[in-house]
Amino acid sequence: MRLCCAGVTPEVVDNALRLDAQFIDYALLAVYFVVVLGIGLLARRQVSSSIDFFLSGRSLPAWVTGLAFISANLGAVEIIGMSANGAQYGLPTMHYFWVGAVPAMLFLGVVMMPFYYGSKVRSVPEFMLRRFGTPAHLVNALSFALAQILIAGINLFLLGSIVEALLGWPLWVSLIVAAAIVLAYTTLGGLSAAIYNEVLQFFVIVAALLPLTIAGLYKVGGWEGLKEKVTAGPGGAEQLSTWPGSDLSGFTNSFLSVVGIVFGLGFVLSFGYWTTNFVEVQRALASKDMSAARRTPIIGAFPKMFIPFIVVIPGMVAAVTVSEMVQTKAGKAPADITYNDAILLLMRDLLPNGLLGVAITGLLAAFMAGMAANISAFNTVFSYDLWQTYVVKDRDDDYYLRVGRVITVVATVGAIGTAVLASGYSNLMDYLQQLFSFFNAPLFATFILGMFWKRMTPTAGWVGLVTGTASAVAIFVLSENDVISLEGQGASFLAAGVAFVADIVVSVLVTLVTRPKPDSELRGLVYSLTPKEDRTEHREGADAVWWRSTPVLAGIAAVLVVALNVVFA
């Protein structure tokens, strides 16, 4: 919940967070919004069917979908949440990128995308329908839809908070205005508008955060100066090495901390998110062919490795230079000041007008990218997997296109409601990791077992999912009531691990007493029953060059991420 202390009035807090924007800053914002809406209008011309609206007609090149893939994740949680983690935990936050993202992205591109793209499914829940049948499909579709509304609320809350800090508007007004901007271009152009805006937003975000990082390091005397100040602060020298990351994991024992990070974050939460989360997979499904689809997450992995240097480092700088963050770090946080405010306060202290406008635009771009990704994935799953499958069947394509646009409006309104929930967390990564342990960890267990074990039955699919989710919720309840006491995000890591194991165990037991599908129905859905030619790319012409080879690119990325883990260990 929000941290507070006596003697600090709301007016003081408002002044602390207020960004001193001038005409040039507002002008930059205005230009950006015009461009964003213009992209939505242009994308609308390409929408003539539901596949165009929901999957961009499966026509986009790999570099576009690759940048969109990473930009869709580079939303509010990535910027605010990871800078908050940087301020609170230091370099162990790098685990969310180098352990908790890149390996799973490479696995998605090399192993799983051939099944998604080759089966021509329109969503991850539709893949579940083909593999496990109706019950598992319905559980997955409903849980995914709920998760997207909750996560969109996080992005919208932070988007509204920026507008509130910039203009001084009440938060509820800021939420509505911010939601309306995202709603406009997403409703107009569907996934194409979201993806092309995400490509633009990627470059805007980098242009915003790179100067902030450089200015921050200059202020503290470079990397050596930052190390000295962090070492002398409350977190100590432990915050300057990625391992064992005890403060982050909540385990005081170094061995248990490493196991918790590698298994809980690096395997269960990471693979659960990156390989089964339709928000990301949807971008790859919009690719023009199998080769582009496989390269999409691997292209995204390269910037993903280096993004923490312009996200985590500013949080660490804020923790030792911004007065409010220094107090928060010492356990004396001013009223309504939390770690989530780290990057805003650093912007306030360091950036002159003009650069401040670029930084504000970058933050807004990040939040809009994240929210648009959640909304575009939600409207696809709702329209195809829920409405068309269970409510109104066998209507013409134009009908489902209209449903998609209407539900986009409904989802945006829903996100305004869930934004209130997000406002109750001082570190939004805590909230997000809880959601992932509920929804993604058990889904990954079901998915990976079903993909590599042909004997797994449809009944085991849905029973395992429900059991895994219930297990994660049980750990959360025990943690909230102090029955299980873990600091940091250890409770989320534990919940994810328990959900994964419970799902696997129950799925195996149920499979042993229920009937599997015949092999003939599992081609393209199970690894051992899918011919090699159906799960490999066929590169011709320009795609035949070595640097467009999925295994080669994945190998280079793997070497780089191992090197980063070693250097900063």
From TrEMBL:
Membrane topology: Multi-pass membrane protein
Species for this entry: Spongisporangium articulatum
InterPro entries on file: Na/Glc_symporter_sf, Na/solute_symporter, Na/solute_symporter_CS
Presence of keyword DNA-binding: no
Lineage: Bacteria, Bacillati, Actinomycetota, Actinomycetes, Kineosporiales
Transmembrane segments: 23-43, 63-84, 96-117, 138-163, 169-188, 200-218, 255-276, 297-320, 355-382, 403-425, 431-453, 460-479, 491-513, 545-568
Protein name according to UniProt: Sodium:solute symporter family protein
Location of the protein in the cell: Membrane
Entries under CDD domains matching the protein: SLC5sbd_u2 (cd11478)
Keyword line: Membrane, Transmembrane, Transmembrane helix
Keyword NADP tagged: no
Family in the record: Belongs to the sodium:solute symporter (SSF) (TC 2.A.21) family.
PANTHER family reported for this sequence: SODIUM_GLUCOSE COTRANSPORTER 4 (PTHR11819:SF195), SOLUTE CARRIER FAMILY 5 (PTHR11819)
